[in-house]
Specification:
Elements: E1 2-4, E2 7-8, H1 9-13, H2 16-21, H3 29-50, E3 56-58, H4 63-69, E4 82-85, H5 95-105, E5 110-114, E6 123-127, E7 137-143, E8 149-153
Parallel strand pairs: 5-7
Antiparallel strand pairs: 1-2, 3-4, 4-6, 5-6, 7-8
Length: about 160
């Protein structure tokens, strides 16, 4: 089943951690409805703009999978509303180019420059809230000295 012209449910819900741990990561219908909106408003416009495959490192996560990886208890990944894009090692576009394209051109609920440095995020998290409204929140993910993740408002 396809969520958009270039995004399949299999790609959206693929997880090596789920496979390794035997966790069922099959999205339910409500998750697929949200994922179709995310694909229509975020993924497909990125894919069409750059004209190249866009690699998703994380899409849908079941509650068990999210717990297994230590994800936030309120993660939009568990609702089918978020994707993490990681183009490192895949050529162009870069993670930073994708981040700026989303920021400047697409409606989104949350956009996160995930770790990395001032020039390049390690990956880009973006969410689209099913049924809206979209917050347009832009954050930077960082780690403190104890390794705990925290978020700050993104500053250009």
């Amino acid at each position: 089943m396809m969520l958009s012209k270039n995004l399949s449910v299999t790609e959206f819900s693929n997880s090596t951690t789920a496979k390794r741990k035997g966790i069922d990561n099959t999205p339910k219908n409500s998750h697929l409805e949200a994922a179709k909106e995310l694909a229509k408003n975020i993924f497909q416009p990125i894919r069409d703009h750059f004209g190249k495959p866009i690699w998703i490192s994380s899409g849908y996560r079941s509650k068990l999978l999210n717990e297994a990886i230590g994800g936030s208890k309120t993660s939009q990944h568990c609702k089918g509303e978020a994707i993490d894009i990681d183009m490192d090692g895949k050529g162009n576009p870069t993670n930073a180019e994708i981040f700026y394209y989303i920021k400047d051109n697409l409606p989104f609920d949350q956009l996160i420059w995930e770790f990395g440095n001032a020039e390049k995020p390690d990956w880009v998290h973006v969410s689209y809230k099913k049924g809206g409204p979209q917050r347009g929140q832009i954050l930077t993910a960082k780690r403190n000295s104890a390794g705990k993740t925290y978020y700050e408002n993104w500053v250009e």
